[in-house]
Amino acid sequence: MTAARRSLVGPAIVVLAATALLVWLGVWQMRRLAWKETLLAHMEARLAAPAGPLPAPAQWPQLRPDDYEFRHVRVAGVYEPQAQALVFAGAVSLDKGPARPGYYVMTPLRLADGAALLVNRGFLPIDLADAARRGPPPPAGLQTVTGHMRAPEGRNAFTPADKPEKGEFFARDPAALGAANKISLAPFTLDAEANGATDWPRGGATVERAPNNHLSYALTWFGLAATLVVFFLVWALRTGRREG
């Protein structure tokens, strides 16, 4: 082996390893693309389906998010305003208007069998929130609510800690809100759908279409792998001629 060829062995191994990693990342994104397309199709089917009955309370402990996320349901009950709370929503855009900071108004709904479900009645701009962090009172008496079942909102390292004594909550988490108000709630929430009302809160604010950028990510990784190989071949060719 000539000196020129020996000088290429180390860089070639590095480029080969880096190329393999980039290709693996591209393949992983393609698998994620197939998963996301299946997920979106499932979600769109549930969103478009007619409203059905809420699962019976006896089934609630066994439900998994995959079983119910975005399921369209209709349920009747009486709101319990004393346990209502506001959850910070960040910036939300309604009716394709500019995004505004605000809260989700979360109110327990007591069903006829005694079980309780936390209903996200809708979005409330931050400038309309009251000092007690309770929000506008719900309508009294028996109410029929139509909306979509949602899994508890996850938390991460950047989610602020709840401050129940100040009425400050930062995740749509029925367990946390139930504990703060000493009320047992279903392990999921219900996002009330938009009903055309112009007063606050306004429903239909939390049904987001998940982004699907996996194809562009995959093409980026594959493109980087191809670019790396081309640059290495050009460099190796020039190095060989210079040292040959």
Task: Walk me through what this model shows.
The longest helix is centred in the N-terminal third of the chain and has 46 residues, at 3-48. The protein has a 5-stranded mixed barrel with strand order 2-4-5-7-6. The chain is of the alpha+beta class. It is built from 4 helices and 7 strands, in the order αβαβββββαβα. It folds into 2 domains: 3-40 and 213-243; 71-192, no CATH class. It has helices spanning 3-48, 65-68, 174-180, 214-243; strands spanning 52-53, 72-79, 85-92, 100-110, 116-125, 142-150, 189-192. Strand 1, helix 2 (65-68) and strand 2 form a beta-alpha-beta unit.
The first-to-last residue Cα distance is 12 Å
The overall pLDDT, averaged over residues, is 82
Please, how many domains?
2
User: Which value, in Å, is the CA radius of gyration?
Assistant: 26 Å
Number of DSSP E strands: 7
Shape: elongated
- Helix/strand/pairing category: alpha+beta
Percentage of residues in DSSP E strands: 15-25%
Q: In terms of per-residue confidence, which ranges show pLDDT below 50 for 5 or more consecutive residues?
A: none
Count the helices. How many? 4
Spatial strand sequence of the major β-sheet:
2-4-5-7-6
* Sheet of most strands: 5 strands, mixed, barrel
* N to C succession of SSEs: HEHEEEEEHEH
Helix content: 25-40%
Condensed summary:
The chain is an alpha+beta fold and 244 residues long. Helices cover 36% and strands 21% of the residues.
Sum up the structure in keywords.
alpha+beta, 5-stranded mixed beta barrel, elongated, 2 domains, 244 residues, 4 helices
